[in-house]
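Hey, resending since the last one bounced:
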Amino acid sequence: MLHNVATDVHCLTVSFEVGGFLELGGRMTVIRLPDGALWVHSPVRCTAEARAAVDALGPVRFLVAPNLMHHLHVREWAEAYPEAKVVAPAGLRLKRPDLRIDQELGGAQGAAWAGVIEPVLVRGMPKLDEFLFLHRPSGTVLVTDLAFNIHQSGSWTTRTYLKLCGAWRRLAPTLLTRSAVKDRAAVRASLPPVLAWDTRRVVVCHGDVLEADAKEALRDALERL
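The structure tokens again:
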């Protein structure tokens, strides 16, 4: 169930539908830290099969909600792994007061993943507050909702919507994502560290993993914001 995309980087891809008519797919990324513990990005449904696949890699230490939207299954995983720390944007405390949050993204990350995984908050989008992440050893960038990369879909509504967005079969933001931009200057000021990353692949939550010309594709997608 877990697909290895790079050394210490594994992905679990699942079906995911929005509003009953957009089939976007979903993806959880699991990174093994140098001490062998696991850092889980955007947890999907916590099934027995998913848990078994993750447990085979190592102990879960961090459960990461990367923005204010991708939190639906964090509580399931937090209950299954009470020893793991839940890490999320500060604003998620207001949106999900029922969710245990142990550590806020953007604060002191601790020695466990500092220097291995680098987070950058894209500001100016207060309804989203998305963090992009770089896994430094593999050059893998994790993107949640800022850009999709969907190349195949059996849903004509999904294909039509993404074509209207200019986001069909390319790494690009959707119209909904672009509508979340409230301060263009703040977004623009957030991007230089990301554009300077040694990006070798982009793992999106919605769509295909991008390997070819990943740095250029990421730059183009972010400029579209």
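The CA atoms of residues 102 and 210 lie 32 Å apart.

Sorry for the duplicate.
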